[in-house]
Amino acid sequence: MPTQAERKRAQTRVKPNVVARKSGKRKSSTFGAFTWEVLAFALLIAAASLGYHYFNQDKAAPEAATPAPAKGVTQEDFNAKVKEEAPRAPYTIPDTSAFTVIEIPGKGKGAIATRDIKQGELVLREGPLFTIPKAIKGNPTEPIMQKIIQLTGEEQEAFFNLSYVNFPEHLSPQAHVAQLALAIFQTNAVSTGPEEVGIFPSMARLNHGCSSAFNVVYMWRPEEQSLVVHALKDVKKGEELITTYTNTKKTRDQRRAFLQQHYGFHCTCAVCSLPDDLSKASDERLTTISSLYEKFAAWGREEIDGAEAVEIIRQIWRIEDEEGYTSERGSLSADAAWIAASHSE
């Protein structure tokens, strides 16, 4: 009998578990032409540092040091070695005709529908710009910078134009490219399975909404090596496309605290902006849903029978309807089908 964990469908943004997370202001890292010249030079220095470590792996360098290349090691040699040993699939610019990216007051950049989009319609299919392992030993900036070095100029620009949090206020982004890259990666990385996380520049433009406020959902498809975004409900031309970054079956205070800590913003989505009395009622529904899911997990441990498990699914479905939380109907239906199949003769 499959366990609840085996059937769980996760769609949350994740970060590599390699550094402590700190609160910070979310920033846009849009660079001008002059800044790109500075950034290119900084990338050259960072690559040289990586090259030095590559050709001097038996020597330990201080963490804060930025060593010069070893004698006889050129930047071209290092880049060629990296590409030879770690070839990557080329990034294909996805079809983004369903939306346009613009500045939205109070949110930074966001995706606005360019036409009416029907419920269930494919909005975006995008392969990763690059991926890295979720668990990293040592300096977390090194695997990120190694990937960035392999990108084209246009791809590097797409990465460095993404927003970020947790970058020290007193540091210059242009002078600390590796730290900037880490901040951008942590803010925008999406799970690509149990082992890796990746960057999807177009998908990263989708802003967050809680509970019933989001209208698109995303999922990683390993067989296609791509992330797909579908409309959860009908979206009118001119509406913002909104997904969710976290488990929104939390109270408003809990959601806002998490989003402030990890993404650097105070959530003002349609659900978080409800009047206090309506927000309290929403919190109670979401808390009840979470409790019911905990009870439902007992079926995977064979602690409750199929009839009780199906009744719990019915209760979750009813309360989520009241909340307008429709994103889990597919997984609830699949769970009900699992139960029926497990108890069929």
From TrEMBL:
PROSITE patterns: SET (PS50280). Keywords: Membrane, Transmembrane, Transmembrane helix. This is SET domain-containing protein. Residues 1-22 are annotated as: Disordered. SUPFAM superfamilies: SET domain. The keyword Transmembrane helix applies. The chain crosses the membrane at residues 31-55. The lineage of its organism: Eukaryota, Fungi, Dikarya, Basidiomycota, Agaricomycotina. CDD domains: SET_SMYD. Residues 97-246 form the SET domain. InterPro entries: SET_dom, SET_dom_sf, SET_domain_protein. It comes from the Eukaryota.
